Amino acid sequence: MTTKLDKLLDKAMDKFWPQLTYPLSFEDALGTLSKQQLTSIRTNLQISNLSSLNKQGLVEKLAVKIPEHLSEAVRCFDQNRIKLIQKIVKNDGIWDNPLLEFRKYEYFRERGLLFPGTVEGKRVILMPMEVLETLKEDNAVLDQLNVSRSMEWIRMTQGLLYYYGTLTLEQLISFVFSVEDGAEASMEFMDVLIDASQYYDQFEIHADDTISDTRVVDPQAIMKERSLRHDLDFCPFTKQQLLKAGEPEYVDRNSHYMNLVRYVLHRYEIDRDEADLMAEEIVDAAKNGSSLADVIELTQEFIDIPNMETLNAVTNLLVPIMNSTKQWAIKGYSPEELSAKRASASMLMNHIPNQVRQAEVIDLQSKKKIGRNDPCPCNSGKKFKKCCG
Q: What is the pTM of this model?
């Protein structure tokens, strides 16, 4: 039985994939859009003096102006987007097996480059003839782009946010650039990031001049707690580590992560993808500073924990993950690393403001957070705050 919701969804899909003809002209493509969507194209390509036109007038002007502004449309592209454009150009302006997320189709449409539509009953992506001809005739539009630099900037940013979660834009720029790079490079960098944030789903730029990984639950809370740790520098990473962490879908599948995955695969009717998803969400929760109780509750969304024996077994797998996960509030250190750092530097806990939440190292035997006055788990005989805390 078809419900009202099904009908609404079908209507929305028909609107997203309108009937188009191939080859596609700009006037036909733009004619399917609302005036608000046309205005988005005008704004993204920085085409001025068209705001007073009605919809039909805007369609006619944009059909002429967009090919003249292709350089602006692709200025901030990285290799992924350029390769896709080149692929569709090579295929004479049609992609008959589109595999992108809806957000990415909208991104290209809002720049007048590609249009999702239905041709002879099949959903395809079309490039207007005017764009196709311009790109075929003038390879310089794409060849002159510094796509490798843009890709590196994006990956570096994603890698930094993978480890630090959230940063001010000033902090981000200081990590990516040296003083010698100058303001001009950092301005181009911000243009690339703003554009990339509309295409990828890995980071967000906020109105308060901060930038966050999309998995961060409360960026302001992380920044607030981090500001109290004035004695703690950010955990250092090499450029290679950041670029690797900035790759799409990167996951640090360390031994603790894999122990959990193997455990659930062996004891539960769960496939590898779901086991991986569970482990990834547990790691994300640990990065956000979630408690062990919260992480156990999250785990129960994936698997049943019917008795104390199972609970103990699962907890023994979760605790090492939490202790070894680099957390955003403690500037990219794991609780284990931070405890070792403080111990090696003989940094006593009373040097840190009382309101700072300490890195929550969990005792593997008791499954409880170690208190400042508890015996240190390293068996030194000292209190935790005087030893590894």
A: 0.84
